[in-house]
């Protein structure tokens, strides 16, 4: 999914998303910014997997709430686009990976809710909005042993980076928890009925160069595409 810069009226992308996919064996592309159903359907048809990236806050209207205050900053066109893309991905069983905003959006779009602003709505001493550099761990997450994330990483505790002010509140019925922070906030979700739909609150796109767990997550995403459909890979 493209990132949107309202001030510059342009789409852009952090290189870590692209490079993390490329290092894992995929060929990354940035989708154009659109909410045209026919155009999006054609775009999704050419993709073997879809990465829902970070960015603006998820609109609280998606989960039937009013904006808390001025701390909520949304992009209506991006929300509309991603709703269409996610529905197509789920109906076609296309692999999906969500990162930061990605986990929040996927959860909200499927019927869950969010904390609109952690400092105002959730009491915690855990650092969820770290200062740079962003490739170093800020806190640990506790991985559920019956989850596919545990099957991949073979560890119950994982140090992660963290840069967010919103978070999953009520988990959507179709999703299951894969990891939580020490303070109880949800850090990873997956959809059991989908071949591969994982969503993380932390940022492997910042840490993939040196962090083996981040590399394994990107590779699991790419490998799910290879199993799902033969296409052109490095």
Q: What distinguishing features does this structure have?
A:
234 residues; alpha+beta; 7-stranded mixed β-sheet; two-stranded antiparallel sheet; 8 helices; 18% strand
Question: How would you characterize the largest beta sheet?
Answer: 7 strands, mixed
Instruction: Summarize the helix and strand pattern as letters.
Output: EEHHEHEHEHEHEEEEEHH
What is the averaged pLDDT score? 93
Shape: globular
Amino-to-carboxy terminus distance: 21 Å
The total beta strand count reads: 11
Rg from Cα:
16 Å
Task: Report the β-strand fraction as a percent range.
Answer: 15-25%
Number of helices: 8
Instruction: List segments where confidence is low: pLDDT < 50 over at least 5 consecutive residues.
Output: none
Alpha-beta classification: alpha+beta
User: What is the percent of helical residues?
Assistant: 25-40%
The main sheet orders its strands as: 3-4-11-10-9-6-7
Task: Write up what this structure looks like.
The protein is α+β, with helices and mostly antiparallel strands and 234 residues long. The protein is built from eight helices and eleven strands. It has helices at residues 15-23, 37-45, 76-92, 101-109, 118-121, 148-153, 204-207, 212-228; strands at 3-5, 10-12, 50-52, 96-99, 114-115, 139-143, 157-160, 167-168, 176-181, 186-190, 197-200. The strands form three sheets. It has a seven-stranded mixed β-sheet with strand order 3-4-11-10-9-6-7. Helix 3 (76-92) links the parallel strand 3 (50-52) and strand 4 (96-99). The protein is globular, with a radius of gyration of 16 Å. The mean pLDDT is 93.
């Amino acid at each position: 999914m493209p990132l949107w810069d309202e001030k510059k009226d342009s789409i852009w992308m952090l290189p870590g998303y692209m490079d993390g996919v490329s290092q894992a064996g995929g060929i990354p592309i940035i989708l154009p910014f659109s909410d045209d159903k026919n155009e999006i359907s054609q775009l999704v048809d050419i993709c073997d997997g879809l990465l829902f990236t970070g960015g603006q806050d998820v609109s609280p209207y998606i989960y039937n709430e009013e904006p808390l205050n001025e701390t909520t900053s949304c992009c209506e066109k991006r929300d509309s686009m991603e709703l269409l893309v996610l529905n197509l991905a789920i109906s076609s069983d296309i692999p999906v990976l969500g990162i930061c905003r990605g986990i929040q959006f996927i959860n909200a779009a499927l019927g869950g809710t969010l904390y609109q602003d952690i400092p105002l709505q959730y009491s915690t001493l855990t650092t969820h909005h770290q200062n740079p550099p962003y490739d170093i761990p800020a806190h640990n997450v506790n991985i559920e042993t019956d989850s596919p994330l545990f099957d991949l990483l073979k560890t119950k505790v994982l140090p992660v980076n963290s840069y967010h002010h919103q978070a999953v509140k009520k988990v959507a019925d179709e999703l299951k928890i894969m990891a939580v922070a020490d303070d109880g906030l949800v850090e990873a979700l997956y959809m059991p009925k989908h071949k591969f739909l994982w969503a993380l609150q932390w940022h492997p796109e910042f840490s993939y160069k040196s962090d083996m767990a981040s590399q394994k997550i990107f590779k699991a995403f790419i490998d799910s595409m290879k199993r799902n459909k033969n296409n052109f890979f490095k």
